[in-house]
Amino acid sequence: MEEPTVVEKKPTILTLDVGTYYWCQCGKSETQPFCDGSHQGTDFEPKQFTLAETTKVWLCMCKHTHNSPFCDGAHKAL
Q1: pLDDT (tens digit, 9 = 90+) per residue, 18-76?
Q2: Which residues pair with 16 in a beta bridge?
Q3: How many CB atoms lie within 10 A of CB 44?
Q4: What are the C-alpha distances in Å from 45 to residues 17, 52, 54, 58?
Q5: Rounded to whole angstroms, how far apart are CA atoms 5 and 28?
Q6: Which of 30, 38, 40, 55 is most buried by a 10 A CB count?
Q7: Would you say 35 and 29 are in contact if contact means Cβ atoms under 8 Å apart?
Q8: Is the separation of the CB atoms in 16 and 71 below 8 Å?
Q9: Which run of H or E residues covers position 57?
Q10: What is the DSSP letter of 36?
């Protein structure tokens, strides 16, 4: 299986409105942390997540989290 591209070794902190989002799992998107379709031709698919209220989130940018799309500190071991 392919390894994702590490974008940063820290999360990105955003306040997101109610809605459905698609988090980039491959690390190749130009619209990080969200998918732009750059995973085409890879083993990766975007991770869909939905927020029911405006929420401050810590999104993984190292792409090695075990709690996608949220940061779990995995970047500390890279």
Answers
A1: 999 999 999 999 999 999 999 999 999 999 999 999 999 999 999 999 999 999 999 99
A2: 55
A3: 20
A4: 23, 23, 25, 20
A5: 6
A6: 38
A7: yes
A8: no
A9: strand 55-59
A10: -
pLDDT of residue 51: 99
Cα 24 to Cα 53: distance, rounded to the nearest angstrom: 21
Nearest to 29 by CA among 15, 14, 40: 40
Cα dihedral across residues 52, 55, 61, 65: positive or negative: negative
Rounded CA separation 70/8 (Å) = 14
- Please list, in sequence order, all residues whose beta carbon lies within 8 angstroms of the beta carbon of residue 76, skipping any fewer than 6 positions away: 9
Are 1 and 43 in contact by the 8 Å Cβ rule? The answer is yes
